[in-house]
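Please decode residue identities from the backbone states below.
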């Protein structure tokens, strides 16, 4: 109650993603209202420094980091990897959740090579990213659930890693690369992307370099500059 009144009279708006701004507009924020993107808790680039990809390309090192719940789509990742030739990939999973037992059972049934690492600190996350070639974010879309941002995707970009993500919520806009986005729950499309990355070393390197450049969009300096510019635009429009 009152949200539409607040939005229609707002001088500016801030959201962590484009989907958030779109939701505000759907709820009453006039198109053209000064706005800015600013993550609620952007990663510290000093904790996720860019590093070269591992020299070893085969098997392709794939990492997942996050909660182990069904809607995070790790089962899609396991199914996609099982379709690739044996020895093509190696998967490490950092995180815990009520769905872990089911995922361990599924990995055994599929014969997918995977190591469950359990809980981890921010340093453990950074170590996992440095180990990897590719970071997967296979989030699903539920009736009242989709990815609102994607912190691990940004951390991976800062480390200079390739990110492959589903089309859940903000993820496609976060990546800005349709080649690395697949329909949520579509293990065939995900398998196709991972297969190309495992076979084509040049393609892998090009995508990693592109994501490392894109990471600059999410640094604290860039985010702070966007907020300062928003206040300036609001101030100028009110004079």
């Amino acid at each position: 109650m009152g949200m539409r009144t607040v939005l229609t009279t707002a001088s500016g708006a801030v959201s962590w993603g484009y989907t958030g701004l779109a939701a505000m507009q759907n709820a009453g924020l006039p198109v053209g209202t000064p706005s800015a993107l600013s993550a609620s808790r952007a990663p510290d680039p000093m904790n996720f420094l860019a590093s070269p990809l591992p020299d070893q390309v085969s098997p392709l090192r794939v990492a997942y980091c996050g909660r182990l719940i069904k809607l995070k789509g790790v089962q899609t990742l396991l199914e996609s990897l099982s379709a690739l030739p044996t020895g093509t990939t190696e998967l490490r999973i950092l995180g815990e959740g009520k769905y872990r037992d089911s995922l361990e059972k599924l990995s055994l049934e599929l014969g997918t090579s995977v190591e469950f690492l359990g809980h981890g600190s921010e340093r453990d996350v950074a170590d996992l990213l440095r180990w990897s070639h590719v970071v997967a974010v296979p989030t699903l879309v539920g009736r009242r659930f989709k990815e609102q941002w994607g912190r691990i995707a940004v951390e991976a970009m800062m480390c200079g890693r390739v990110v492959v993500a589903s089309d859940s919520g903000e993820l496609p806009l976060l990546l800005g690369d349709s080649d690395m986005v697949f329909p949520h729950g579509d293990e065939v499309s995900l398998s196709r992307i991972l297969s190309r990355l495992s076979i084509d070393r040049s393609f892998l390197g090009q995508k990693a370099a592109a994501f490392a450049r894109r990471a600059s969009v999410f640094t604290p300096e860039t985010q702070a500059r966007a907020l300062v510019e928003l206040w300036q635009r609001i101030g100028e429009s009110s004079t």
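Observation: Strands lie at 13-15, 35-37, 60-65, 89-94, 114-118, 134-137, 162-166, 181-182.
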